[in-house]
Amino acid sequence: MYFCQNYKNTLHRLVKIGNIQLGEFPLLLAPMEDVSDPPFRYVCKQQGVDLMYTEFISSEGLIRHAAKSKKKLDIFEYERPIGIQLFGGNVDSMREAAEIAEAAHPDLIDINYGCPVKAVACKGVGAALLQDIPKMVRMTDEVVKAVNLPVTVKTRLGWDDKTKNIIEVAERLQDIGIQALSIHGRTRAQMYKGPADWTLIGEVKNNPRIKIPIFGNGDISSPEIAMERKNKYGIDGVMIGRAAIGNPWIFNQIKHFMKTGAHLPQPTIEERVNVCHTHLQKAIEWKGERLGIFETRPHYTNYFKGFPDFKEFRLRLVTTDNYQQLQSVFTEIVNHYNSALA
Length: 342
What we know:
This protein has helices at 38-46, 59-63, 67-71, 91-102, 118-121, 133-146, 166-175, 199-205, 223-233, 250-260, 269-287, 289-303, 311-319, 323-341, and strands at residues 16-17, 20-21, 27-29, 52-53, 57-58, 82-87, 108-113, 151-156, 181-184, 214-217, 237-240.
């Protein structure tokens, strides 16, 4: 078993990315396509997340002024600190995109070398760069030189089990100036299947050459797991992705558990409805009523996952096009489940 040799020395060290103070053990929201938009980020910020990122943005889309890519640059003061995440396969395009992203005034620029999905990796971007480390280094170097913000990277252990080169990647990227590294504990070949392997994440963190913050990502689904990863591997913080979908409370739950050793109560039906309603309101503010209602629909099932006999309510939520009618459905949900518990 792998145990952190330096854990006692990291107990009270404040984590910083450049001049960004993140506390002793920051919790990061992973950038997730079609999830990590401003409405979702808002509810996560309300529930204790320390650092967030935009959805990943295509460098080619940005330099060609694609409306969808430019819309993803939207950030708000209440979200800070926040990073804009970019992906691409052309070095010149990434450098130019980084300059465009910097003009949106984020707190940092993040580069995605970890996205495993076929539509991305087969185009030579995302996790595909794990097969061409020299190009990854050149691209990162150009981005670091192009902007005056901290540059960070999110990546995976390697392309497959035969090429787990994350230690080399971490050293080389640190040497050219990145200021933090987030590591997902799977290879690209694994996609999201099987348990995340944190052994190599721990080895990167405890490599004497590594001085930048190392954040671990993969299977952080409870306060106990977050605490175990912190104690065992000595990482500087954790990045949470899928476990936060429909469950933004996980950030405060982890913080409370680490501080007290006790669990916060699970959110009540009123708390779930309130957060879901806030998510909807922010979506409408951001994109207007029609699009805001439409883009919130996928989240309803997640917010009420596990509630018995929710099928009828879910059907109404995903077929209602009127904000006032949705408010009425939310009220009915609260009344129904409170009556069932009475």
